[in-house]
Amino acid sequence: MQIKPEKLPKHAAVIMDGNGRWADQHDLPRAQGHLEGAESARVIIETCARINPIKYLTLYTFSTENWSRPQSEVDFIMQQLVRYLEENKEKMHDEGVRFKAIGRISDLPEDVRKLVKATEEYTACGSNLTLMMALNYGARAEIVDACRALCKDAVNGNINPTEIDQATFQSKLYTTDAPDPDLLIRSGGEMRLSNFLLWQISYSEIYVTDVLWPDFKEDELMRAFNDYAGRERRFGGRETHDTRQ
Ligand code: IPE
Ligand code: IPE
Ligand code: MG
To answer: How far apart are CA 6 and CA 119, in angstroms?
Structure first.
């Protein structure tokens, strides 16, 4: 499957869903689904780092709502996150992957927070791919945090409220310097956004597959990119081949 470089997304965002159902289908504990899901994430990161036109990959890893799961599952996910970063820090560095966490990072357990910071620093020079890992991420929380930051600037006299525009607002989001995602992928078949990147995906192309995340490897990613390559993005304008008055 050969896709023209200009037809690939510069920024792909992924809702990695379906670990639990995959485990159920294989008669395994949910934890096993999360482990195989982490392996899918590793493969997708590595693949995107290799494909030159792709410069940003955002992975929805843990939402602000996921704390409502049983404590044992939350603990397991956090442990695996630590293991994943410890095992892959060096590799990300070598592959030119710049790691950045987005979300309310200050509310994560201390060991996760420290490792996140250390990984960000260690991989800061990566120029092949910026990997934005959404951890304790919620789009509504992100928008509220951006509003707080703008209000603070206004109170301190650093910004005039009448001058706030979309660009100023965007600059306060966690994703600040990244372009909006061109493509949003959701595995696991659910037709919803689950509080992911509400501002940034205004004009993203959406691809939902029934494939469960632990089964989503390189060939499924290519299927998504191939589908994206066939889309015509209009941004509210008209079809490019429409020459009627
Ligand atoms: C996604 O898989 C992983 C996280 C949300 C952390 P799920 O655990 O939500 O799997 P399903 O949706 O129950 O199958
Ligand atoms: C979305 O999946 C969050 C992540 C993939 C991290 P969920 O499983 O939490 O979403 P819902 O509950 O099906 O909406
Ligand atoms: Mg789910």
So the answer is: 31
